[in-house]
Amino acid sequence: MGIDPAVPNQARVYDYLLGGKDNYAADRAAVDEVLVAVPDARRMARANRAFAMRAVTVLAQAGVRQFIDLGTGIPTSPSVHEVARRADPAARVVYVDHDPVVQAHNEAKLASDRGVTTVLADIRRPELVIGHREVQRLIDFTEPVGVLCVATLHLVRDEDDPAGIMARFRDRMAPGSHLVVSQFCTDSDPAATATLHEVDAGTPVETYFRSADEIHGFFDGLELLAPGLVSVDEWRPDVPEAPTQLKILGGVGRKA
After folding, report:
1. Which DSSP string do the residues of the chain spell out, in sequence order?
2. Is residue 95 classed exposed, middle or buried when 0-12, 13-18 and 19+ CB atoms within 10 A define those classes?
3. CB atoms < 10 A from the CB of 163, how many?
């Protein structure tokens, strides 16, 4: 798969931020460099993950029984299928990522579950994702589906048209479907933002911060569930938390 353990990998970096063990020294060094200047970065990552799981809970309670997780990353418990199946043990989930590292971890963990699959695909090509045989096997696009794009779009370049990517997924979603998105916002602390960009400069990764208006555009044509587009730690939190230096906005939109 051409994995170079000496080069930080975004999925492994995020795994380390979340307290996982599927990472290498280069990933830990990159995170530790960020933590010097942005000590709450680990809490930010966990707040983002918690937002995603709360959103899945809301969708499952609303009757959504099939999910597509775009840019899933290395498996972390609880995962989307674990949370969704608290409402319905038959809930179906497709995990999508373009990273072979993620693919290998997901295949090892999910190989025996016919109701969950992992797909190696690039979300920048929605038609190939939607048309993939494993997606077609598990997802019925005539029925409501929950599409998650959590902490993924800030890795997509402006020239790759993230708003257009989301529009193509929205167009295939049936009424009653939901879109869950989180993305780094330009309202973040400037010094923390600069530090992240400095760390990115030594890796193949570049992080793109977008305005609240740009992020809101990812939900065009959808009804945003309360409380709207807010910091992920403010989206229906179980316990109130202080804001972090790096701000990730999150929201859940419903297709009428």
Report:
1. ----TTS--HHHHHHHHTT-S---HHHHHHHHHHHHH-TTHHHHHHHHHHHHHHHHHHHHHTT--EEEEET--S--SSPHHHHHTTT-TT-EEEEEES-HHHHHHHHHHHTT-TTEEEEE--TT-HHHHHH-HHHHHH--TTS--EEEEES-GGGS-GGG-HHHHHHHHHHHPPTT-EEEEEEEBTTS-HHHHHHHHHHHTTSS-----B-HHHHHHTTTTSEEPTT-SEEGGGSS-SS-----SS-EEEEEEE--
2. buried
3. 16
Q: Which two tokens stand for residue 139?
A: 């997802």
Which residues fall within 8 angstroms of residue 13, CB to CB, at 6 or more apart? Answer: 23, 27, 30, 31, 205
**pLDDT at residue 202, rounded to an integer:** 64
Residue 159: count of CB within 10 angstroms of its CB: 6
Can you give the pTM of this predicted structure?
Answer: 0.92
Task: In whole angstroms, give the CA distance from residue 76 to residue 69.
Answer: 13
10-74+81-254 under CATH 3.40.50.970, yes or no: no
Question: Do the beta carbons of residue 11 and residue 101 sit within 8 Å?
Answer: yes
Q: How many residues does the chain have?
A: 256
Rounded distance between C-alpha atoms, residue 68 and residue 182, angstroms? 15
At residue 206, what is the residue type?
A: E
Question: Model confidence over 73-84: pLDDT tens digits?
Answer: 887 889 999 999
